[in-house]
Specification:
Blueprint (H helix, E strand, L loop, with lengths): L1 H17 L5 H4 L40 H11 L1 H21 L5 E15 L4 E19 L3 H67 L5 H35 L26 H11 L1 H22 L4 E14 L6 E12 L7 H67 L5 H36 L5 H13 L3
Length: 485
């Protein structure tokens, strides 16, 4: 009875094992092209299920307006880039747990079934016996000379580097969303400005038509005014397409379908142009201290030093403790139904010669650590250059805002004078159209300058390694606009 039970267990285990040794790579068909000019008919791979976009509850209400902070929040919830960095950090945390497991003893349980046949006196006597039973093995590395500590430290530094890399990924996503958000607001403001230009061009066309009907203007003036009106309308049509394209791009940056209906605020008119009060030297020192990608690079260099100690410890002695206990049943039982055995051992492992592997691995780790340190130094220089460039980029953007506002004020006054002179009959249509074209260009430049200021501030914040202050600025402006009756 016992023999049949054992054989049944063995058969069941074998059947279960056979079900896993035939993967699709061995059993599935392997199509190949029939000829160089003929493609293979392949079934598309099964799409990976993606989680549904996550949206805050208050944004699902009718008439809800997305602020820049809302857009960033949605993007951080749904953007796959942040999920990649997040799961890599979780993987690094699990690897740290694996490295620390070397400090604990290891306990294994194995089960063995064997069938033996013995012959005696030239085969005149045969004896068959089945033996089975469990074995418990205990192994514990009691003492080493720094190998486990170096591995655990390397894993801890890798986790810290992954955490900083995740922070860098979050900041990069925020910057990308801000740039797309500002580009969308700029396109919308440019569209409104172009529609204003159409209205002004229509007024010039109406004035030319009235003067022509009164006999004080030629048909050429009317045609010139119509041409300017058509050009202004063409700009509206072009910007309308850009607005729709950027609207879809912003939805995609948030991890939403491009067809998602939503609304956002407008580009703020008033800007805190004196916001950046720190010097470029102070911002550079701040970036060197808190820039996440630079911190991750420095931790990788420290991890390289820990790996040197780990490989060096592989050539040093280690002290281990081992123990095992076994119970074996016999069928048929000649002297007893089962037998017990146990053993305990204390082992000293002293590597005498490893084919120079320890020395080679240590030297490789030393060179890798030097390369990591060099990469960190290179990145630090790049960070300094980025902060320097973005700082003066913001200074330039600030000056462009002031200059473009002066230009817009002058262009508006010039257009009003030219329109009045033309209606009074003392000005020409060319003067009016030139003034309107200059006004349209000045209006577009002023909008572009405001957008560039927000983009420059966001870039400086990211290069410095801090959260962008444009989040709060855009929220305040949008809140004020939405609360207006």
């Amino acid at each position: 009875m016992t023999k049949r039970l054992v054989l049944s267990v063995v058969a069941a285990v074998a059947a279960a094992a056979c079900s896993t040794v035939g993967p699709k790579g061995l059993t599935a068909p392997a199509p190949v092209p029939e000829a160089p000019e003929r493609p293979v008919a392949l079934a598309p791979p099964t799409p990976i299920p993606t989680p549904a976009p996550s949206l805050p509850a208050h944004l699902l209400e009718d008439g809800a307006t997305l602020t820049l902070a809302d857009v960033v929040d949605i993007a951080l919830r749904n953007n796959p880039v942040t999920r990649v960095a997040y799961f890599e950090a979780l993987s690094a945390a699990a690897d740290l747990g694996s490295a620390r497991s070397a400090y604990y003893p290891r306990l294994d349980l194995t089960a063995d079934v064997s069938r033996a046949k013995q012959s005696a006196l030239g085969g005149q006597f045969d004896f068959q016996q089945t033996s089975y039973g469990p074995t418990v093995d205990l192994s514990w590395l009691v003492l080493d000379l720094g190998g486990r500590a170096a591995d655990a430290e390397a894993a801890r530094l890798a986790l810290l580097a992954a955490d900083w890399s995740h922070t860098a990924a979050v900041q990069n996503v925020i910057l990308g969303v801000q740039q797309t958000f500002v580009a969308y607001l700029n396109a919308r403001a440019q569209l409104e400005a172009a529609r204003t230009s159409v209205t002004q061009a229509q007024a010039a066309n109406d004035a030319a038509t009235v003067r022509h009907e009164a006999g004080v203007a030629t048909i050429a003036e009317v045609l010139q005014a119509k041409t300017a009106l058509s050009q202004a309308q063409l700009a509206v049509d072009r910007l309308s397409g850009e607005v729709l394209a950027l609207r879809g791009a912003l939805a995609t940056a948030m991890g939403l379908p491009a067809t998602t209906p939503y609304d956002v605020g407008n580009l703020p008119d008033e800007l805190p142009l004196d916001f950046a009060s720190k010097t470029v030297e102070e911002l550079i020192e701040q970036a060197r201290a808190v820039r996440p990608d630079l911190a991750a690079a420095r931790l990788e260099a420290e991890r390289g030093e820990a790996r040197i100690r780990s490989f060096r410890a592989q050539g040093l002695p280690r002290l281990s403790l081992g123990a095992s206990a076994t119970r074996t049943w016999f069928d048929p039982a000649r002297y007893a139904d089962y037998g017990d055995s146990w053993s305990a051992r204390l082992m000293l492992d002293v590597p005498l010669f490893t084919g120079f592997a320890t020395r080679s691995n240590t030297d490789q780790a030393r060179q890798d650590a030097a390369a990591s340190a060099a990469r960190a130094d290179t990145l630090e220089q790049e960070v300094i250059l980025q902060v320097w460039t973005s700082y003066y980029g913001l200074q330039t953007a600030t000056q462009l805002v002031r200059t473009s506002r002066d230009l817009l004020a002058s262009a508006e006054q010039s257009e009003r004078v030219a329109m009045g002179r033309y209606r009074e009959g003392v000005g020409t249509i060319l003067d009016l159209l030139a003034a309107q074209a200059a006004l349209a260009d000045a209006r577009a430049q002023e909008i572009l300058a405001r957008s560039a200021w927000f983009a420059a501030l966001a870039q400086l914040a990211r290069d410095t390694g801090v959260a962008s202050p444009t989040l709060k600025a855009a929220v305040a402006v949008t809140t004020q606009e939405s609360s207006t009756p």
